Here is the input.
Amino acid sequence: MAEIKYRIALVEDDESLGYVLSEYLKINDFDITWVKKGSKVMEVLTTESFDLLILDITLPDSSGFDIAEMVKVKFPKLPFLFLTARSMKIDVLKGFALGAVDYLKKPIDEEELVARIHALLNRVVPPARNLNAEHSLQIGSYTFDPQNQVLERSGNRTRLTERENALLLYLSSHKNQLCTHNDILNGIWGKNDYFNKKSLNVFVSHLRKYLNEDQGIRIENIRNRGFVLSVAENPNS
Here is the structure.
């Protein structure tokens, strides 16, 4: 059975690098649209649908950071990563603060890039994308609709971000089981490192806040190991 052919928008102004990356990704069965100007990105995203956006930061006519801000507003479900020569800590932190799923530094080995993309798309995107719109999960007294990124209880609805949705889907799929830092970070963030671990802790805090109306639900921190989404059999409403 043929695998899903993922569609990727690559934003890169360097002719040589853009050509090499786009051709290599095509060889690895990705459907690539190469965008050479930052000013064209929103136009392309409006007319076509994509599973992932790869952004350079330093573009001759715009900033990848500015593009990312616009993408988060207009296409909040589209994951994006930065592939850039800018490696200062402040740039890395800003990239993740904008919602990037990864921040890769040039030069990068093409095989590593493909591995990172597969880690993201195969482990994060398909579970939510393959669920039917009517398929919801029950977490205590909450109804979780991962397809539409909605968490609901007693008529109160919370719209989750892409990352919150993926994390809750992962935890709820392993309810009452230990989810290790390594499995979560490699499966959702695509890499287990210091910055991603800090980001994970922030998103766990978000989910705890959303789920705090049900006393039968806890996201337990197992020190130096990971997290457990603990749900009582008879949750308090």
